[in-house]
């Protein structure tokens, strides 16, 4: 298994007065492409401004039934040739706003048909002195995210990208998290509680009156996703739908050929769902649970102490996973090769504490061989049981799979170990994996890199595969979200189902999995810059996570 070192990322903040931000850039970081596949009917609020020209009124949204509200009073916005614009300013270089009521947790997008200085969109808007905005700085060739509190503005994020007419600006907010996207590429984000409950969103422009706006869209989020049942951020690879620009390898691709093969290097490869053995049980702790010492025998730096119920489940099978969600319901402590010495003492081969509100990826962020969370990609019991109150009949996340070491790929010359940032030095793994099994240099014999992303191509008619309802549910998840290779196993391609799932679901799924695996292909353009493939998403993004109880 693995050992990792921490990687810390700084958050830069500038505190300045009015005007343009400081001359300090935040470099682009392509975290995840935005969803741009949503039909207009999917937007809660929408306006294309295709109505009669006006110099005195912006009118009302085409979808959502609201009139635009103008700030400050005495100014006017209008419509010109199907574009919104600031028609009458207040003779100052202060910001001018046109807003509607959206939500605090929101996705808001607008197209800048024509550029103007200090123009863009606003969100979590209270008034002119208290709001957030994402705006151009045309003269400096950048965008900046601004926070107004009590009339004082600061600049938590700056983006070194020159504004271009036609740019699509997008902001996503979820609780205290704010993420910025331009033209579908994530440019960074901040964590900040300012105006966290404010709900108004809209347009902003300055006195130059040059900016023209088009295709204003708002997707409100109810933030009802439970992190203990469906963890990780909506733009995590575990939750991000596959992009419609994803490309799929043919069956002659070496990685795909090994993945779908029934025999590799003389080893028969079956298809299976780990459930009662070699799975990932999840236990919920409370403050009345025993406070236990968990000693990592491979790395004392990973040892810890936390609440562990005396009856916490340790998985059957040699991997002996034990995963415990903390009483605050914000983290999960994952452990591999667990021995219960007593109700207050455990000995484990690896331990990590995982943020349920994070991305679920490594390095040093989970006990699976790929370096990330063990519960990422796990088919949960509530997803499989029609009598569960949370049941939807869908699996809306990517799945985790393990393959035999004769299928896994080792790249020449790297040896087992870790660099200063916790990334594995035995090579062959691909993003989002950050490592692979210890000893891979001798026992990885195939062509499937750890971290590979597989999916069922959209050309496959799932309904024609003769699957059970349970099998169709999993196949649909593999077509909409895909699957990641996260671990090694023996003589099988194994999917993972929570041990408390109904046996009837698992029985039906196991019968269907050979036919399902035969349809899977490697996605060849999955990367940190284009996670889960580029382009518009096959299905809408998941709602934001609800705050912890």
Notable features of this structure?
549 residues, mainly beta, Jelly Rolls, eight-stranded antiparallel sheet, six-stranded antiparallel sheet, 5 helices, 8% helix, 31% strand, elongated, signal, LamG domain-containing protein
Notes on the protein architecture:
The radius of gyration is 25 Å and the shape is elongated. It starts with 13 loop residues before the first strand and ends in a 27-residue tail after the last strand. 8% of the residues lie in helices and 31% in strands. It has 5 helices and 32 strands. The chain has 549 residues and is mainly beta. The N terminus is likely disordered. An 8-stranded antiparallel β-sheet has the order 1-11-10-9-8-15-6-3, with no helix packed on it. It has 3 domains: 176 residues, Exo-inulinase, domain 1 (Jelly Rolls, Sandwich), CATH 2.60.120; 170 residues, no CATH class; 74 residues, no CATH class.
Furnish the topology, listing elements before pairings.
Elements: E1 14-15, E2 45-47, E3 69-71, E4 76-80, E5 83-88, E6 96-101, E7 106-114, E8 120-127, E9 130-137, E10 142-149, E11 152-159, E12 168-174, E13 177-182, E14 185-191, E15 200-205, E16 212-220, H1 254-260, E17 263-264, E18 267-268, E19 270-274, E20 282-284, E21 291-296, E22 304-307, E23 322-325, E24 331-336, E25 339-342, E26 345-348, E27 350-355, H2 381-384, E28 399-404, H3 440-443, E29 453-455, H4 469-480, E30 483-489, E31 492-496, H5 503-518, E32 521-522
Parallel strand pairs: 19-31, 20-23, 21-26, 28-30
Antiparallel strand pairs: 1-11, 2-16, 3-6, 4-5, 6-15, 7-12, 7-16, 8-9, 8-15, 9-10, 10-11, 12-13, 13-14, 17-18, 21-22, 23-24, 24-27, 25-26, 28-31, 29-30, 29-32
């Amino acid at each position: 298994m693995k050992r990792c070192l921490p990687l810390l990322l700084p958050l830069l903040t500038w505190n300045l007065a009015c005007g343009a931000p400081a001359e300090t850039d935040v470099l682009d970081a392509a975290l995840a492409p935005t969803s741009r596949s949503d039909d207009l009917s999917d937007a809660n609020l929408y306006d294309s401004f295709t109505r009669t020209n006006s110099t005195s009124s912006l009118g009302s949204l085409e979808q959502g039934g609201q009139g635009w509200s103008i700030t400050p009073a005495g100014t006017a916005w209008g419509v010109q040739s199907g574009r919104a614009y600031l028609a009458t300013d207040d003779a100052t270089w202060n910001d001018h706003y046109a807003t509607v009521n959206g939500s605090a947790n929101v996705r808001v997008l607008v197209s800048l048909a024509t550029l103007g200085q200090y123009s863009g969109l606003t969100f979590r808007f209270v008034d002119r002195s208290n709001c957030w905005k994402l705006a151009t700085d045309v003269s400096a060739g950048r965008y900046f995210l601004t926070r107004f509190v009590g009339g004082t503005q600061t600049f938590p994020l700056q983006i070194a990208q020159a504004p271009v007419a036609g740019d699509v600006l997008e902001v996503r907010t979820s609780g205290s998290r704010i993420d910025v996207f331009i033209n579908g590429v994530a440019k960074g984000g901040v964590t900040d509680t300012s105006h966290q409950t404010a709900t108004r969103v809209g347009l902003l422009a300055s006195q130059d009156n040059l900016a023209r706006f088009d295709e204003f869209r708002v997707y409100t989020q109810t933030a009802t996703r439970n992190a203990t049942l469906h963890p990780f951020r909506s733009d995590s690879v575990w939750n991000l739908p596959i992009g419609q620009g994803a490309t799929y390898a043919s069956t002659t691709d070496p990685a795909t050929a090994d993945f779908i093969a029934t025999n590799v290097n003389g080893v028969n490869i079956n298809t299976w769902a780990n459930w009662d053995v070699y799975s990932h049980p999840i236990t919920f702790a409370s403050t009345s649970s025993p406070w236990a010492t968990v000693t990592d025998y491979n790395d004392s730096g990973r040892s810890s102490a936390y609440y562990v119920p005396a009856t916490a489940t340790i998985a059957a099978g040699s991997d002996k996973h034990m995963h415990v969600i903390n009483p605050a319901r914000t983290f999960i402590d994952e452990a591999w090769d667990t021995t219960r010495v007593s109700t207050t003492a455990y000995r484990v081969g690896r331990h990590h504490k995982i943020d349920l509100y994070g991305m679920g990826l490594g390095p040093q962020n989970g006990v699976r061989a790929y370096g990330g969370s063990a519960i990422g990609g796990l088919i949960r019991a509530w997803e499989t049981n029609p009598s569960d109150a949370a049941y939807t009949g869908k699996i809306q996340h990517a799945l985790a799979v393990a393959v035999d070491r004769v299928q896994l790929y080792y790249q020449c010359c790297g040896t087992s170990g870790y660099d200063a940032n916790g990334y594995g030095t035995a090579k062959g793994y691909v993003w989002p994996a950050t490592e692979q099994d210890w000893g891979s240099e001798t026992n990885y014999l195939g062509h499937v890199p750890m971290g590979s992303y597989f999916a069922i191509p959209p050309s496959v008619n799932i309904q024609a595969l003769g699957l059970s309802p349970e099998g169709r549910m999993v196949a649909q998840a593999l077509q909409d979200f895909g699957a990641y290779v996260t671990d090694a196993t023996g003589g099988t391609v194994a999917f993972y189902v929570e041990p408390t799932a109904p046996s009837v679901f698992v029985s039906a799924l196991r019968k269907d999995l050979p036919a399902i695996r035969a349809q899977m292909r490697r996605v060849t353009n999955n990367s940190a810059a284009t996670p889960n493939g580029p382009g518009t998403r096959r299905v809408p993004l998941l709602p934001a996570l609800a705050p912890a109880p």
